[in-house]
Design a protein that fits this description.
Number of helices: 7
Strand content: under 5%
Number of strands: 0
Shape: globular
Largest sheet: none
Distance between the termini: 12 Å
Number of domains: 1
Length: 117
Amino acid sequence: MKRIAHLLAGIAVVAGCQRTAGTAAPPVAGPYRADIVRLCDVVVQSGADQLPEGERLLAIAQWLPAHLETQDAHEFLARIQPLEGEAKAGALDAEARRVGLPGCGLAAAWRAAEPGH
């Protein structure tokens, strides 16, 4: 799962660089909230949960850039990319709560992948 986190962060940076800058959206706009929902559920929505562990990264890497719709979501991923471990999972959980979600499956998966869990 740590490899998934690193791959997602790399994809976010690349995808963010490929998008054009637009006007800032409201803090919790419908499309941005939908992107955070997709991000939090990316393992399931991409179908990666149905694949062997070693094949999940590719499925997520192929699915995510095509399914995040807002520049703000790409920028959020780029901001948390340098974080690691609990800091990264906590940032994702906090953003999920900010947009009205009770938690985030991807953040929980990142925590579970940490050594000692």
